[in-house]
UniProtKB/TrEMBL annotation:
Residues 248-328 form the PDZ domain. PROSITE patterns: PDZ, PROKAR_LIPOPROTEIN. Coiled coil: none annotated. GO terms for molecular function: endopeptidase activity; serine-type peptidase activity. One of its GO terms (biological process) is proteolysis. It comes from Maribacter aquivivus. This is Carboxyl-terminal processing protease.
Length: 712
């Protein structure tokens, strides 16, 4: 069944938002119970693959909620868990009966245990730490049992606090031994003896914990209940999420608005908040010291003592990190390589101009190629004609053609996706016509979305660059071009693997009357993407034609590393015919693989990737200072060794297009951004290999269709 895409999306949104959910009356004087009733009903009726509310579901909610609120196991003791166990197989029944007894019991005990914890850490920090003692701590908290009693819990706190002070103690000792060392932050590092350094380290840790517990004490019961609701919701899939009223406005306005903050997207991890995306043009991007995979473990405000966010809810951590434009935030970061650093950033409004498509000429000898970088598939949903990724890429293609490009690289690395409509139109720039993607809805047949415009914007050699962070819409485009054999895909072993579609449903829309105010909204998975060859992009993503290692090759990233992802499956293929424009498609891939096998830069990248994996697998940390220093020095030495990766020079020349160079006379910031981009591209072995592939591709003499000007 083939339909007009815009019509289908409108129809589907209308059905989800109204007709599907109007056959039940929701009335409850208790706001929490009403919220639970609404959300579970939406999940049952609207989710693409609803879960059965049974004992297995109950067990997962039980275990995940405990893990979410006490990930480092420093509050509850074994007797608490034993007491909670009686609800382990009852939560599904509670949900069906809009009963929240389990939440109430756990919440009340958590408040009690948090009060106990304040006393415990005060007691522990009264006693000096002996850094000469040979002991260690496991940071693989999920494999640790809960403490048997208060005595064992106190010992667990002692080790965690000793671990927390090690970095501060090391810093003070280093400054004591060498007054010329420059501080990485604005804190007082002065210490005149080992005893004083140890004492001040404990004092610093105590101040941090005091601030953390003051912050937590400001949270209301409703904040914890939202966490419980999202534990239930998260069992359905990692992209289904409940937004409390105050969180709705924060939800993904990135397509056409602005970000305010540091310009990074974060994911909750047991050891802190992990950076999973860096917004081009934002403070993190401009500073260039942080990267995807780094974990923020402490947050300070303009030189004040930082607050430890390990174990803190992600939303609460983000509240600390965000702030008014122009203010300074100090981030203590555990780098991908295991080293610790303090990075101070000035918060700012992140303009999305740097999230738009941009292009450059690549000069190699007498040859000229083009590269287009697309950070996301953006669109203004209020006015599609205003600005969108497909139209912008078409313009860049036309400009590159005018400047004489002989082959095109479309860089989709780190592109997290976006508008499906722009994907279909963009794919149409490179093929005559035909299906681009298949979409399956719950309990319905598939829809096939086609490019119906027979014009071709570019019929020359095409390479698409991807990595593990290329997701959703990026995967659809790469998959379509791969299935048509229109482009050669170069990059990671596979892309992210997000093959699902979500829609946002305001919960107030489901009520005829409401005395409880704004109830928020739920983002729910309603559809699934399939390639035109029938395979889903879910979990498996897109496998590159030419696999090139990168530093994330052995690190768990992507959909498979998320909680409760939907599975991979296959449907019938769409009716399509492979493009026959290349005469040496397979040979080009084979030749590239041979080059990659002998590249010293690729070998160094592979070595770095394996080292990073080994560092992440190291979960037993020594609390002996000499051992700690020895390991830290080894890590620093190894990290410095891999810095030579950035010394690579591809010998390629990158140059802005004519229209952009005219803008530089009035926009020095734009010039700086482009210069930095070009400098990084010149060190990029993946771009270098993409150019080699473009050179190797031999084209048929048969034109695939009339070249268009700019497709609209």
């Amino acid at each position: 069944m083939k339909r007009n895409l815009a019509y289908v999306l409108l129809l589907m949104l209308a059905a989800v938002a109204s007709c599907s959910f109007t056959n039940k009356t929701f009335e409850n004087d208790d706001k929490d119970k009403l919220l639970l009733d609404l959300i579970t009903y939406v999940l049952e009726k609207g989710h693409y693959e609803p879960k059965a509310l049974d004992d297995d579901f109950s067990v997962h909610v039980f275990e995940d909620f405990i893990d979410v609120i006490d990930p480092t196991k420093r509050y509850f003791i074994a007797s608490d868990i034993a007491e909670f166990e009686k609800y382990k197989y009852q939560i599904d029944d509670e949900i069906k009966n809009t009963d929240i007894t389990f939440f109430n019991v756990v919440y009340e005990r958590l408040m009690e245990r948090m009060g106990d914890a304040k006393g415990i850490y005060k007691e522990v920090l009264e006693t000096p730490f002996d850094y000469s003692e040979n002991e260690s701590i496991s940071i693989k908290y999920d494999e640790e049992p809960f403490a048997a009693d208060r005595k064992e819990l106190k010992e667990r706190w002692r080790k965690q606090l000793k671990y927390a002070t090690l970095g501060t103690f090391d810093s003070k000792i280093s400054h004591m031994e060498n007054d010329e060392i420059e501080s990485t932050d604005e804190h007082d590092h002065t210490a005149h003896s080992l005893k004083e350094a140890e004492e001040e380290s404990r004092k610093s840790t105590e101040t941090t914990l005091d601030e953390f517990f003051d912050f937590v004490s400001d949270l209301e019961r409703k904040d914890w209940f939202v966490q419980y609701i999202n534990t239930i919701v998260d069992e359905f899939d990692p992209h289904t999420f409940y937004f409390a009223p105050e969180e709705k406005e924060k939800f993904d306005t990135s397509m056409s608005g602005k970000f305010e903050g540091i310009g990074a997207r974060l994911q909750k991890k047991a050891e802190g908040a992990k950076i999973v995306e860096i917004i081009s043009g934002g403070p993190v991007w401009r500073d260039a010291r942080l990267e995807v995979g780094d974990e923020i473990i402490k947050v300070g405000q303009n030189g004040e003592e930082p607050i430890n966010i390990v174990g803190m809810r992600l939303d609460d951590a983000i509240k600390l990190i965000k702030g008014a434009q122009g203010t300074i935030v100090d981030l203590t970061v555990k780098k991908v390589d295991g080293s610790l650093d303090v990075v101070s950033l000035t918060r700012d409004v992140v303009e999305l101009e740097e999230s738009y498509a941009k292009s450059a000429n690549i000069i190699k000898g007498e040859e000229k190629f083009g590269i287009i970088n697309l950070p996301k598939f953006y669109v203004d949903f209020n006015d599609y004609s205003e600005r969108n990724a497909a139209t912008d890429v078409a313009k860049e293609v036309e400009r590159l053609k005018e400047e004489g490009m002989e082959g095109l690289i479309l860089d989709l690395r780190d592109n997290g996706g976006g508008s499906l409509k722009t994907v279909v139109e963009m794919a149409g720039l490179f093929i005559k016509d035909g299906p681009i993607v298949q979409v399956q809805s719950k309990d319905k047949g598939k829809d096939v979305y086609d490019d119906k415009d027979e014009r071709i914007q570019w019929d020359g050699p095409l390479v698409i660059l991807v990595n593990e962070l290329s997701a959703s819409a990026s995967e659809i485009l790469a998959a379509a071009m791969q299935d048509y054999k229109r482009a050669i895909v170069i990059g990671s072993k596979q892309t992210f693997g997000k093959g699902t579609v979500q829609n946002v449903i305001p919960l107030n829309n489901m009520l005829r009357s409401n005395e409880h105010g704004d109830l928020g909204a739920i983002k729910i998975t309603t559809q699934k993407f399939y390639r035109i060859n029938g395979g889903s992009t879910q979990l498996e993503g897109v496998k590159s034609d030419i696999v090139v290692p990168d530093r994330y090759s052995y690190i768990d990233l992507g959909e498979r590393d998320q909680s409760n992802p939907l599975g991979w499956d296959k449907i019938t293929p769409a009716d399509y015919k492979a493009w026959d424009g290349y005469i040496n498609y397979e040979k080009t891939i084979a030749d590239s693989e041979k080059r990659m096998a002998t590249s010293q830069q690729i070998k160094l990248i592979e070595e770095n990737a394996k080292w990073l994996k080994a560092e992440q697998d190291e979960t037993e940390i020594s609390l002996n200072f000499d051992t700690y220093k020895e390991e830290k020095n080894k890590d620093k030495e190894q990290s410095n060794y891999f810095k030579k990766l950035t010394d690579y020079d591809s010998k390629l020349t990158f140059k802005s297009l004519g229209y952009e160079e005219q803008l530089f006379t009035k926009d020095s910031v734009l010039r700086e951004k482009r210069n930095r981009w070009h400098k990084n591209l010149a060190k990029d072995v993946y771009v270098e290999e993409a150019v080699n592939v473009l050179e190797d591709l031999k084209m048929n003499n048969i034109k695939q269709g009339k070249l268009a000007s700019v497709k609209n």
